[in-house]
């Protein structure tokens, strides 16, 4: 198995041949849950593209590891960047969407309270739900051994999503009635790709019109209709393959 990944606040002081200390909740998980011991391989990352690869030098108490750093690695910036605007699903399907998109390799996720969303984030629920999405992305990033975790943005209104689409190098709305398959769309070799995933009730005609004015056309994934919690993952995988990022 590949070495487990743990998140640290910063790797600014990390260097090959030196040591780093992992403590707090991450250290407790490494020591008390994963039960890592001296000599085992481990990766510490800041979630922003840098990873310190090394071995456990010592274990202190129930929540502290000292890691001997063998080398530092840095991810190349993703290109093209893939952003998914995700309509708010019901229940815990939002976290499921974030988890699987993160594991697949999406670069950014934007929550969107579409007109036909049954779930709407308001007041304290908004902050709590957004926190769950961000925590899910963080944990899925570690689980999938990523050095660069996806950004989970603040929720955007339809008007704000339209502005995001207008600024993209390729913008698409996943829609079962789209005449063009996403698999055959002309994609940019570089830049920013933004996909909109609608709610279970679909993107409303008014929203489609706003997005079309911003330059986003409707595209379909295939002959089946996917749930909102899985469509973004399927589309991300398709684009990662087509753009060569999975080559």
What key phrases describe this protein's structure?
247 residues; alpha/beta; five-stranded mixed beta sheet; 6 helices; 12 strands; 31% helix; elongated
Describe the protein in words:
The protein has 247 residues and is an alpha/beta fold. Helix content is 31%, strand content 26%. A 7-stranded parallel β-sheet has the order 8-7-6-11-9-12-10, sandwiched between helices. Strand 4 (50-60) and strand 5 (64-74) form a beta hairpin. The longest helix has 21 residues, at 123-143. It is elongated and about 60 Å long. Its EC number is 2.1.1.193. Residues 80-239 form the Ribosomal RNA small subunit methyltransferase E methyltransferase domain. It is an enzyme of class 2 (transferase). This is Ribosomal RNA small subunit methyltransferase E.
Task: Describe, in short, the structure shown.
This protein is an alpha/beta fold and 247 residues long. Helix content is 31%, strand content 26%.
Unreliable parts: none
**Main β sheet profile:** 7 strands, parallel
What is the gyration radius calculated from CA atoms? Answer: 20 Å
Which structural category fits the helices and strands? alpha/beta
Strand order of the largest sheet: 8-7-6-11-9-12-10
Total E-strand runs: 12
Shape: elongated
Mean pLDDT across residues: 95
Distance between the termini: 22 Å
Q: What is the strand content?
A: 25-35%
Share in helix? 25-40%
The topology string of helices and strands comes to: EEHEEEEHEHEHEEEHEH
The helix tally amounts to: 6
Domain Ribosomal RNA small subunit methyltransferase E PUA-like: 22-67
EC number: 2.1.1.193
Protein name: Ribosomal RNA small subunit methyltransferase E
Domain Ribosomal RNA small subunit methyltransferase E methyltransferase: 80-239
